[in-house]
Amino acid sequence: MQDTQKSYTTAIILALIALIWVSPFSWLAVNAVNPEADGSLSWPNSVGFQNFAEAMSGQAGGQFMNSLFLSILTSTLTVIIAVFAAYPLSRLKIPGRNAFLWALVLLRMLPATGVIVPIFFTAKSTGMLNLVGVAIAITMLNLPFTLLLLKNFFDTVPVELEEAAYSEGASFFQIMRNVMLPMSRAGIAVVWFFSFTTAWNEFLLPLIFVRKTADFPMSVGLFASFGEHSSVNYGFLASYSILYAVPAVAVYFLLRRNLNTGFAGVGVKG
Amino acid sequence: MLASAHPWLKRDWPLLVCLSIPAILAVGLLLYMAGWVLVMSFTDLSLFGRKATEWSFIGLENYERLFTRRGFLESLWVTVIFTFFSSIIGQNILGFVLAGTLRNQPGLLRSSIESAVILGWVLPDVVAAFLWSATFTPNGLVDLAILQPLSIETRNLINDHPLLIVILANIWKGTAWSYILYSAALDSVPREVSEAAKVDGATPMQRMFFITLPMIKSHIATNCLFITIGSFVYFPLIFALTGGGPGTKTQVLSIFVYNESFSVGKLGYGSAISVAMLIIVAIMSIFYVRLLREPK
Q1: What residues form the membrane-spanning segments (chain B) (predicted)?
Q2: Where along chain B do its domains lie?
Q3: CA atoms of B93 and B75, how far apart (whole Å)
Q4: Alpha-carbon span B46 to B267, nearest angstrom
């Protein structure tokens, strides 16, 4: 009896926490669907989707495409580079491999703000102050983590499978495509998700790299438009925020099954 | 090395080498840039003006400035407060409590709370900043739901308590990470151990402190280090929410680096701050490496 009462109390407290957790979204919801949104938290008099139409057209729509371009380029680059480097790292006993792996563990912690000035100069002198430059910079900053993660996944694929493929005359690319990649699907999904969302959320690099409003990804686009306090179009900002958040949230919930495999515990074995 | 390698690796080794060149270059470039920051921190290089081209080495002057001029030590202190309260106190404890209580909850409740917490985590930083700024404005959620019913005067909360709000925002944003990690850690504790202690008459508190916590000790350490480093270098949410202000009240080190380098334009001084930041992170990372190395 006492136990059930206690579990009811816990359930109510937990439900309250969840409510508090999602409560900041209320502002977003009421302003996004209110065509006359004025930035206050109140029930809209009328509900319409004009704000969304506005946030999808013109420059705002272009910024959505910029973000998409940046994220797809980054995740593709990261997966390709990491797959081909993680494979020998997993299979070859190169002298000094462990030292290299530990260096990666350390480099993984390197914050972007710590090396932002050299990154800026390198991009400036190579004419890369654009989204492609941002994609390359993110790929580089993420690589220590993605390499370690994929290497650990490749370690779990039994080498006998490759042996069998080899003895049947498979080329290197066939071994990769038909054995390694399907066997480490979950790892590739994590790497892809990780690099896609980092690029989608990335704020500092495009803030420094990109000057023209038309070239902004959504992070900087949103920041730039809520900085202008004089005539803020709150309905537009709220719907723009939702459109910006949806892909990041959707990607997570689509892939969540694959993501349970330890994000944090990427160590070095043996 | 090749003698012991598998035959297909031997056959294709030139190809393997070629394909790993991009990764080797990227990692090399990253190291090179860390070295570059170090060199730059000994110069008076600036972003604009004469010193942009005619810079010179000035020895340890930038490092002296870290400790003699206002700015760095204040910023370091703000960062430490921010990091300690938002990660160790906030995300860590809340994540653990949530993971512990949600384990025994029915599926629907569990998955909806999980989704709520994770929603904050996957939300882009700038959107989160926007939401939190709207929540604390006059006539925002906190004002309408808490201050007005209690007839407390409406004020601009972000100006009055900037650091507190930034800390709350980071807890809201980052707790999911600790929650996910602790859920996995608690799943690894065999139920039998805890049940045996229950039969022997251990109270829930005793079971928590003498059985569960010691068994997931390494997870706790890993998590604490990770979120500490993560918060220590966190930039976008704070920058978009307060810009480091009002004044320098929320100017954490990453914002300080950004401001000194790109707004003030003192790249040499900015680099010295970066180096200080990198050293602190490196010390924490070395702790982390030692932790991972420990035999489990």
Answers
A1: 12-39, 76-101, 113-134, 163-182, 224-247, 267-289
A2: 66-293
A3: 25
A4: 5
Domain B66-293, CATH among 3.40.640.10, 1.10.3720.10, 3.40.50.970, 2.40.400.10? 1.10.3720.10
B185 has a chain A CB within 8 A of its CB = no
- For residue A222, the one-letter residue type is L
The reported pTM is: 0.89
Cβ contacts of A122 on chain B, cutoff 8 Å: 29, 33
pLDDT band at B296 (very low <50, low <70, confident <90, very high): very low
Q: What is the CA radius of gyration of chain B?
A: 24
Contact A143 B27 (CB under 8 A): yes
Complex confidence, ipTM:
0.87
**Are A138 and A74 a contacting pair, CB within 8 Å?**
yes
Prior bond of A44 cis (ω within 30°): no
Quote the percentage of chain A above a pLDDT of 70: 92
Provide the number of structural domains found in chain A. Answer: 1
> Residue B46 is which amino acid?
S
Cβ-nearest to B124 among A7, A111, A245: A245
Percent of chain B with pLDDT over 70: 98
Structure tokens given for B37: 């920051």
As a whole number of angstroms, the distance between CA B250 and CA B164 comes to 9
Question: pLDDT at position A262, please?
Answer: 47
CB-CB contact of B124 with A63 (8 Å): no
- Enter the DSSP assignment of A57: S
Q: Is the bond into A158 cis (omega within 30 degrees of 0)?
A: no
